[in-house]
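Sorry to interrupt, but I need a hand with the structure work. Could you write out one complete protein record for me, on any chain you like? Could you add the entry underneath, on a fresh line?
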Amino acid sequence: MRAEKLAAGSPKSARELWNSGFGSTSNTGRGTDIVEAAARLTERDDQALVRCLQAGDMSAFAELVLRYQDRVYNAVWRICGHAEDARDLTQDAFIKAYESIGSFQGASSFYTWLFRIAVNLALSHGRTMKRRKTQSLDVPTRPSVAGSQAATLAARMQENIASDPAQPAMVNEMHGHVIAALGMLEDDFRAVIVLRDIEDFDYARIGEVLGIATGTVKSRLHRGRLALRKLLEPVLPQGSG
């Protein structure tokens, strides 16, 4: 992680909070101390947290990180296709949000604003780096790695499969295929599919995040789904099209 980039606030800086574990993007748990710290934080809505952070309350930053880091990380990972890059980009997104919080006016929700920062960073990263070699469709990733979000998309790609005792196993087998196929899509298509079919954003919010019209969102989503299905044709069961 590029922890040296974290802003040095006071009395407890974003750097210290992140290094203490609040900014961990591991999906395997944060440790007892972090869970206890999260439990001690007052439950506040995003607007209240933003106001507190703008007033210098660093515990508000910690709570926002805890609230959204996993979803931001997972979305960025699906867009950039590389776990370590996603960790760095997630950190960068929270740093940028922290550094820019004074200019946040609330025209959109904090969540939408944060996702806009993260997705833009992920897309810029993809444009400036040579795309990493994508895993073959013939070698599915273990379900535990692909995660429940990939399962959701896999199920949608297989929504016409008849119910039978083998269906859960068939969906699990699709996890790695879907992740690999997502990595082969054009960036614009991949971003829309991740935000709609994995993050379950509505069209208006996707438009806000990506800075495009709702009609463009729908067009990209349609074209992206068609491209994804074409990539998955060799591994989709008969009758799922």
